[in-house]
Q: What sequence folds into this?
């Protein structure tokens, strides 16, 4: 069974995906609004991986890992997260 959620991402780093107890395979989709940046708890537009608007990204999140997201400046964007449960 797949589980999904949507988050509004702004310039404050927030948890996008958590993985406790097992590896988690996720599909991320960034809306058409703005790019956001992926990384650790202090992620910014200058330190994170650029997750370009209107794109999708598949990741395997290792056990006990957390991925954060933030946008640049006053921008906001919506990111959808689909957890692929085995």
A:
């Amino acid at each position: 069974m797949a589980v999904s959620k949507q988050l509004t991402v702004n310039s404050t780093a927030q948890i996008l995906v958590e993985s406790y107890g097992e590896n988690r395979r996720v599909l991320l989709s960034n809306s058409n609004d703005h790019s956001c940046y992926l990384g650790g708890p202090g992620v910014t537009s200058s330190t994170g991986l650029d997750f370009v608007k209107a794109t999708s990204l598949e990741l395997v999140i290792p056990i006990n890992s957390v991925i954060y997201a933030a946008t640049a400046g006053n921008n906001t964007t919506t990111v959808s997260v689909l957890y692929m449960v085995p």
